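Narrative summary of target 7.
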Amino acid sequence: MGKRLTDMKNSCLGAVALATMLALACAPAIAGTSPAPSATPHVIKVPPPHLPPVPLHAEYVVEVNNRGQVVRIKSGKGTKYATFNAQTYGNALQMWIRKADGTAVVGLFKVTYDYNPKTRAVARKISLLSTGGNWSNQEGAANVMIDTAKKEAAESAKQQQAQHAKLPSLNSITGAKTPSPSPLPTIPHRR
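Modeled conformation, tokenized:
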């Protein structure tokens, strides 16, 4: 029985040695098939935006409240470029028009936007058309947009909660009680 046990040990050791030699012989081939990590980041080129090749001019007449916020756009004249029109219209709605001392004049203002294709810059100019107006105490357009977005987000969250309330519980779907989390292991304090 002792000889058989020794023979079995030797054959097991031989098998382990053979497996080790095969693994060592194949390791370079296996390692060569995986890609080497790259230390340098890849540069991603973002194409420049397509800017109009011609000068553009847009103008808006805006109503300004007693805080200097644009309440609404009363009238406007855009260009044939819808993107430029949208950007200038949005900018005009979000404007604050105040004097250097921080006070505001309630009234109608003309806001113009001039795009120069040579410099790729937009110049904005503001001029007072008339003072006064019944919009003095009205909320600014930007604040109205923010309030509307908050209300829409709250309504959307409420609708999602209502939809989730209609779903069956996870316990009824799986047929088993949801496992509760196990406590985190603690490390005993040494003194």
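The helical segments are 2-33, 82-93, 141-166, 170-174.
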